[in-house]
Protein 1
Amino acid sequence: MRLSLLALCPAFAVAGTMPSSEFYALSAPNSEGGEFKFEELKGAKVVVITNVASECGATASNYADFKKMQKDMQGAHVVAFPCNQFGRQEPGSDAEVMAFAKDRGLKVNEPGSNFHLMSKVDVNGPDQAPAWKKLLEVTNSVNKKTNWNFATKFVVKCDDAAEQCSVTRVDGFGTMETLRQKAPEVYSSKGGEL
């Protein structure tokens, strides 16, 4: 049985909703210098948005979870925002971060891929990424800072027929545990025990 260190921390969760048109209108620079448009996520069953780092104690377990998601979870997507604000644990360039993710067996920013790697951003402070800021606003958690790498995850489920997206901010759990609790419909037992 494998547990992420983050899974041992007490969880914090808050939720909100937003029109799906607002969610799909979001965009962010990707790791290749282009623009990732969230409209590419239309049809996803669930989207997990988190900040990542290559040199964090939680890196191995979270990237392993991302790989399991890519292999076993149809309709589950990850939007990863590299961030160097916590212990300077994401010091590399966008190209180096992308190579790191690919070295872990992930298909990154490829057509049909469910792992979308953004350019390095700030998730706290005055230079906070606009998409991250919007998710904080929707979950009424603007005043609660992101505390560490991989510590904050936004779980987004859009009902395109109702034109609404539910957005849940979860702090304190690893990726698979977050999905098991907040999106059990996509959790696959094929991914193994946590």
Note: Residues 1-10, 189-194 have pLDDT under 50 and may be disordered.
Protein 2
Amino acid sequence: MNGLRGQHPLAALLKVAGLARSTFYYQLRILEDGERHVELKEKISTIDEHHQGRYGYRRITATIRNAGQIVNHKTVQRLMGELQLKSLVRPSATGPGAVRSDASRRTC
């Protein structure tokens, strides 16, 4: 439709397509917003790869902020979801099933 906008009035194109003007501009904005966070997605992916998937959204947000870029943690969390990046949870030393080093030395 963008190609025809130079040749025909927008109102005529919308009438033929059966679209409301608001729907057209909403979809146009959605397409542009998809390209808005390309650099941030690359930065998040790079940080995740460098730390072998052990950084969650909080630590990735802190790393990006320490580099001097202002970014909201919710944005990082949403983009990590889109990129299907999830931090690995390391096994806890005190969690269930953990073996303590001094457990074998105990006597009852």
Note: The mean pLDDT is 85.
